[in-house]
């Protein structure tokens, strides 16, 4: 049980980073974000993704636009903002520092 809780917290901690990184490659529809996360074996359900996207948008890191769909109602496509790009660059640095710290701690790498 303790390991599962720690694993869940670790995944939650990197989810925003992964989502910003995916969106930074170009505007994207929410179900495509889920698909990208699944390819990376980071399973996320819509009930987790949509509140996170809303929070990122409310924090000024994302914006969205509506686009007509040939297979149904209009779709909301997300884009990263300039502030989101700045945050992502800082998260990239933090990720590299964390990888170094973990690898050094676990494997004694220098």
From TrEMBL:
It comes from Sphingobacterium alkalisoli. Residues 19-90 form the Transcription regulator PadR N-terminal domain. InterPro entries: Metal_resp_DNA-bind_regulator, Tscrpt_reg_PadR_N, WH-like_DNA-bd_sf, WH_DNA-bd_sf. This is PadR family transcriptional regulator. Signal peptide: none annotated. Gene3D superfamilies: Winged helix-like DNA-binding domain superfamily/Winged helix DNA-binding domain.
């Amino acid at each position: 049980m303790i390991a599962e809780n720690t694993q869940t917290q670790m995944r939650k901690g990197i989810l925003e980073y992964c989502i910003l990184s995916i969106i930074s490659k170009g505007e994207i529809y929410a179900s495509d974000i889920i698909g990208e996360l699944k390819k990376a074996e980071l399973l996320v359900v819509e009930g987790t993704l949509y509140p996170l996207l809303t929070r990122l948008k409310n924090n000024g890191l994302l914006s969205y636009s509506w686009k007509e769909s040939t297979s149904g109602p209009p779709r909301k496509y997300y884009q990263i903002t300039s502030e989101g790009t700045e945050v992502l660059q800082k998260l990239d640095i933090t990720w590299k520092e964390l990888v170094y710290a973990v690898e050094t701690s676990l494997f004694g790498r220098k």
